[in-house]
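User: Can you recover a sequence for this backbone? Please restate the input before giving your answer.

Assistant: Of course. Working from this structure:
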């Protein structure tokens, strides 16, 4: 049985991601905000409200061709 002195996780503590074996570096609230913004961005792309950035097209084309991404220095 756990003692009452053990640290309870709060919403500001990073929560473990199943399958990764260790906690992410981002808090749950930051993960939620990022997820919401990404969903909004992708939705605007899907609806044609914004053009797909050239960088995304370049990465997708490389993935389709099986080429690794160039390292930038």
């Amino acid at each position: 049985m756990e003692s009452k002195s053990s640290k309870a996780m709060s919403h500001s503590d990073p929560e473990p991601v199943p399958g990764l074996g260790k906690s992410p570096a981002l808090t749950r609230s930051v993960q939620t905000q990022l997820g919401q913004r990404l969903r909004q961005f992708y939705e605007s792309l899907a609806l044609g409200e914004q053009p797909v950035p050239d960088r995304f097209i370049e990465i997708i084309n490389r993935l389709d061709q099986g080429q690794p991404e160039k390292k930038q220095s």
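That completes the design. The chain has two helices and no strands.
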